[in-house]
Amino acid sequence: DTGVSQNPRHKITKRGQNVTFRCDPISEHNRLYWYRQTLGQGPEFLTYFQNEAQLEKSRLLSDRFSAERPKGSFSTLEIQRTEQGDSAMYLCASSLLGAGPPLHFGNGTRLTVT
Amino acid sequence: AQSVAQPEDQVNVAEGNPLTVKCTYSVSGNPYLFWYVQYPNRGLQFLLKYITGDNLVKGSYGFEAEFNKSQTSFHLKKPSALVSDSALYFCAVRDERDNYGQNFVFGPGTRLSVLP
Predict the structure, then answer these.
(1) What are the pLDDT digits (tens) for B48-64?
(2) The pLDDT of residue B77 is above 90
(3) How high is the pLDDT of residue B101?
């Protein structure tokens, strides 16, 4: 168990550019989550996969955001036409099935849009 | 829908003293409750959880939490605080019937400062 891995750790981009983040979950975990966290706030749910299927997506999530988990292993989160309001920490988490298992988080990707 | 409140933005405690970080929750069914800690520029690290059974649960780094159903609370405690405990603490809740991701709800966080 090497933990959840996220790349890159930091990303600085100009407004209007597209960015893509990668998450490698714990290998035996079926579930993968993306959260967004702004300074001083708790994580805000973005989307969730069970294996390769994207089962839930936050109603707050703009159409500029898209996520994939093509083979049920790693996942990517893409933000198109970035805006300054997209600046945040993007956290990935994984877990086993069920309501009881905790989420295991990666160290996040910090996005700064200038 | 679930919700979590952490009534204190900031808790200050002297090293060696006991600490408490408060959490109250709202959920339709039976709650599954979690505490996480976050250090600067890091992800959230799982500390402990309550699913069922004993109301006092023990977790990592000497932390424990007490589930109180009548008060809908799940306060985090430690008998003797360390300077290295200084961090951001998040309480989270989900309904036991929930098998989907968006219903894992986090509180706004409490910043703990342990003073030497």
Answers:
(1) 999 988 999 999 999 99
(2) yes
(3) 57
Q: Cβ contacts (< 8 Å) between B109 and chain A: which residues?
A: 40-42
Angle in degrees, CA A75, A79, A50, rounded to 5: 30
Give me the mean pLDDT over the B6-22 stretch: 97
- Burial level of A50, CB count in 10 A (0-12/13-18/19+)? middle
Nearest CB to B104: which of A41, A103, A110? A103
Phi/psi class of residue A108: alpha, beta or left (left: φ > 0; alpha: ψ in -120 to 50)? Answer: left
Q: What is the CA radius of gyration of chain A?
A: 13
Q: Which residue is it, tokens 């994207």?
A: A54
Q: Tell me how far apart the alpha carbons of residues B71 and B54 are, in angstroms, rounded to a whole number.
A: 16
* Residue A68: predicted pLDDT: 95
Residue A63 has pLDDT above 60, yes or no: yes
Measured between alpha carbons, how far is B21 from A22 in angstroms, rounded to an integer? 33
* CA B38 – CA B23 distance, rounded (Å): 16
- Greater pLDDT, B2 or A66: A66
Residue A43 makes CB contacts below 8 A (sequence gap 6+) with A35, A36, A37, A91, B44, B90, B106
Interface list for chain A against chain B, based on CB atoms closer than 8 Å: 4, 6, 31, 33, 40-43, 45, 47-48, 55-56, 58, 91, 93, 97-100, 102-108, 110
